Amino acid sequence: MHNHTLRRIRRALTYLLPTLILILGILMFFYIRTGPKQASDTNAVADAEPSADLIIPSSDVTETSPAEEVDDQTQTPVDDLSKLPGEAPDEDADTVINEPVTLLFTGDVLLSDYVLNNYNNSGIEGVLSPELLSELRDADITVINNEFPFSTRGTQAPDKQFTFRVDPKYTSILTDMGVDIAGIANNHVLDFGPDALQDTFSALDDAGIDYMGAGDDLARASALITKEAGGKTFGFLAASRVIPVVSWDVQNSSPGVFTTYDPTRLVAAIEEARSACDYLTVFVHWGIERDEYPQDYQVSMAKQYMDAGADLVIGSHPHVLQGITYYKDKPICYSLGNFIFNREIQKTAAVKVTIDGENEPTIQLLAASAANARTALCEGAQKAAIYDHVERISSGVSIDANGIVSQN
Asked: Taking residues 88-93, what's their average pLDDT?
C-alpha cells in the first residue's frame, strides 16, 4: 500500500510540476512588467522609457523649451528666432525703410593736367583733402558732372575755344572718389566726336559707374538711372540746355546728348520716371558762364520739372555758384560751380542731401575751394564767407553756420 501511494504521488507530481513552473513564470513576468517600483530603485527609474500613462513629478525632470531644441541636421541650438524659416521680423524691415539716405552732388569735374599731375604724384589725396574725400565716399549715392570724354581717340571739334579729353585709365580717380553716377549731358562730352563719346560709355561701364544724359539713341540718353538705398528707390535724370551745335543732340546723331532746349521731352521723362522711384533728382546743364544768377528760362524750367514730379533739381555749367531756392517746398540748386577743375577755385560747394523716412530732404552745403589743383573743405572765416555769399544770391533761404539750408 505504501509503495502504491508513493507511485501515485510521483505520477501526480510528474504532471503538475510543469504546470506549476509555467504558472510561476507567468506570475513573475507580470510582476516584472506591472509590479511596483521600489523607492530605492533609482536606476530602474532612470533607464525606463516613460509610457503615455506614466506621470513624472515636475521636480524630477528638467523640461526643454522649444527655443532650446536641437536641429537634427545642423545640431545647432535654435536660440535665435530670427534664424527660423520665414520672413525677418517686421521691426527690422521698418528700420531699413526708415533709415536716412545721403545723396551728394558736386559741380563740374575736369581732370585737367594739373589735377592729373597731382594724382600721379600723390594719389587721390593729391586731388581732394581727406575730409572732403570722406564726405564723397560716405554718401550713399555720389553724383558728379563729368565735363569731358574719357578717350584717347577722336577728332577735335573745330571752332571750339576749349576742348577736353582724358585717358580712360583715369576713371580710377572717380572710383577713388566714390562716384556712383556721372552726368554727361554737357557741352564738352563730344569735344572729340562720337568715337570718344563711345569710349566714355565703355570706360564708365568698365569702372562700374552709371552715366546719364547721353547715349547711342534717345531711349538710352534719356534713361532713368535708379539706385537702391535705405529701402527706397532713388531716380536720376540728366539733360543739357547747352550744346555748341545742333548735331550733338541725340535726335540728330548717334551717339548724342539728351537736350532740354524744349523742356517737353524731359518733362515727359520725369512724368514716366515718377512712378518708378521714391525720390527723383533732375541734373541739368544750363545757364550763362560766370553769371551768379539764373536766367529766366532756368527758373521757368525748374518749376516745370518740379510740376512734372521732380523732387530735386541740381544745375551745372556756369562754373560759379548760383543761388538756391524752393518751389512747392522742393529745393532747386541752380549751379554748384567748379568742383575739380584747373588750379584755383575760390568758391565752390558740394550739396549733401539727407532724405529721411518721409522723403523730406535736409540740404547742407559743404563749402570748399581749390589751391594748386587740390580741392578741400573750407573752415572758419572762409567757410562762413561762402555761406554768406550763397545766401545773398539765393531767394527765400537761410544758411546757418553748418551749411544747413532752410526756407525763410
From this structure: 46
